[in-house]
Amino acid sequence: MQGNSAQDSNNNNLRNDWLNLETSSDANNENTLSAQTDTTKSSANQLLTNKIDNLKDKTLSEQSQTLPSDLLNELPTQSPNSFSSDLQTQNGFQSVIKSPHTPKKYGGIKIVATILGVVLMIGAIGTSVILVQKQQLNIGSAWDCSKYKFNVSRTGVVTVQNGSRYNERPQQAQVYINNTLVSTLSVPELNSGQGATIGTVSVPSQQGFTWKVRGTIDCQNEGNYQAETTPPVTISASCNNVVAYDKNWQQLNMQQLSQLKAGDVVRFSVGGTTTSGNFDKARFTINGVQKPETTNLRPNTSEFYYEYTIPSNTTNFEVKAEIHHSQLGWL
């Protein structure tokens, strides 16, 4: 019994030493963790390991029997660096030995940040792809020729207007007049809503013509102009009264005419008035006989005259005169 009591006493002393050692180690480790330096933690853990080894050697040398199995189970079997950072309760006492440096796991945050970065990257790439595709669509697609139009005026001025919502690149424009290629003009780059005059070609504007402008890349337009018609001009013209003169261009009145005798010379004259055009000749009919046309003019006038000699046995004269208008004919 005494042997057993002595053994129990030694075991109790060993347990107390172990608890004191653990308490001391806990204080040292708490101070070490608060300092947050890897070097100090490593030294404290090494010191703890050495004390445990010395305590085990001392106990084994003083006692011929082995430690109780429950106490041996409480002794550390791994290096201090592998101890858990959580408080553990074993056989009624707490182990407060903590790992000197256990890196915090930021895996969750890193994963979230990585996923967010990937999502943003995918969004940026998607936006870039959309922008590039849209730019290619503007360049590669057919032009809106219903709003991109060429025109040739009646005087031959060639213009182009970009009424589409796209900016269109430069090209050449082939201009045809009456189905004949007359010119190839340069068309500049045109922004949406922009127009330009690209040149002038020769056209038969008075006679009317057809035109066509064809873009070498895309779009063409055509049209025609009818011949211009001159509106009719209203001309007013009339023939004046016949006037009789003697050989000296003295006007004869009715009494003097009644005194004429066979062989006398009379000059019958006629003129006219007009709002447009001119008179170019005249003709006289005397006593029912039409005389030859005449272009003779009374001096310093526009009157035409015919010289007539009074025949024998003629006592009455009936004279009719006509004047010719360049556009209206005989009046």
Count of the separate structural domains: 4
| Major sheet description | 4 strands, antiparallel
Q: Quick check: average pLDDT? A: 74
Number of DSSP helical runs: 5
Strand order of the largest sheet: 6-5-8-9
Radius of gyration: 66 Å
Extended strand count: 18
Shape: rod-shaped
Helix content: 25-40%
Concise structural overview:
By secondary structure, this protein is of the alpha+beta class.
Structure commentary:
This protein has 4 domains: 2-95, no CATH class; 104-141; 148-225, Immunoglobulins (Immunoglobulin-like, Sandwich); 237-330, Coagulation Factor XIII, Chain A, domain 1 (Distorted Sandwich). Helix content is 31%, strand content 27%. It is rod-shaped. With 331 residues, the protein is α+β, with helices and mostly antiparallel strands. Strand 14 (279-286) and strand 15 form a beta hairpin. The model is unreliable at 31-36, 77-99 and 127-138 (pLDDT under 50). The strands form 6 sheets. Strands 6-5-8-9 form a 4-stranded antiparallel beta sheet, with no helix packed on it. It has a 4-stranded antiparallel beta sheet with strand order 15-14-17-18, with no helix packed on it. It contains 5 helices and 18 strands. The protein has helices at 2-35, 38-62, 69-74, 107-140, 254-258, and strands at 88-90, 93-95, 148-152, 157-162, 171-177, 180-187, 195-200, 209-215, 220-225, 237-239, 243-245, 265-270, 272-274, 279-286, 289-290, 304-309, 319-325, 329-330. Helix 1 packs antiparallel against helix 2 (38-62).
